[in-house]
Amino acid sequence: MGIVKYIKSPTLLSRLHRYGITWVILFGAFYTAYFRSPIGFRSAISSIIVLMVVSFVMTIKHIFIPCILQRCRRNLIFFLLVSAFTMLWAYISVVIHAKLSKGMGGPQQEWPNLFAIRLIWFSLAATLTIIIYYQNQAKKDEMANEELKSEKLDMELRYLKSQINPHFLFNALNNIYSLVYTKDDKAADSVLKLSQMLRYVLVECQAVVIPLHKEVNYIANYIDFQIMTIGGSRDVKLEKDIECSDYLIAPMILQPIVENCFKYSRLDVNTDGFVHFKIIQKDGTFFFSASNSVNRTDVVIMQKKKSGIGLINVQKRLMLHYGKNYQFNINQTTDSYTVTVSIDKVETMEDLK
Question: How far apart are CA 213 and CA 223, in angstroms?
Fold first, then answer.
């Protein structure tokens, strides 16, 4: 569909076609072309040719294009059928012209010349019909792209604004207060971590893509605060194997998965629970896995819900940013829940913007 690049907007052609003005112009052209012939012949031949062109265009528009070009996507077959149909209609029009000329005193024209002229007329009609089709398709694609961009922007803004969970923030502040109150040396470091997290969400996440090390740093800080809130010793791991720390990724796309792990593992009451994360970035590809323990009650609830709003939003954002260049999988057992995200190598980062 390279032709679409050169026919971007349906302006004059489609408007004329839509309001039937093309048929009036065509009738006038044929009527004027036979101005030396009897008025009866002129009216008859002009009306018949216009009706033939209308039926010709409607057949291409409502049969050939929907059934062959759109549904079957057989471009070669489509153009061969249109070509054969064009020659057939040109031949029929010549036969009709000959009969009308003989019966109504119209001009006698040589058959090869008349056939060539009619072939040009019907070829032009077919060409204009196809051009208008591509114009309309270009307009629909453009509208769909604009709608997708608008939806993406709106979704990103709403999504990023909701990333700082108020409950998490209150817990973090309470933990920092406790550290300050007890004059723990970790207080200053905790304040710095929370400051970095807020800066990341409110400032740096406004970009379409960010370096991977910033996303990983946010997740690591989040995990530290969760461990601080839970207290005691728990099986929480974050494994990293990152080849390029400046690898670009959509911001906050992993955070809902991380939050879900802590939410459903219930490490605050389940001392035997676990939360394991793994991040691997090599050769331009990215892999993330998050696994957590679950109890049987949560398994039943999660099976009914299948996938929470957070994970649905993650999938939508992955689709918006990476198209078909990603995989999102969920593996659930009676005692664990694992989510994996794989992002294939993207040739240019412009594709993400």
Answer: 15
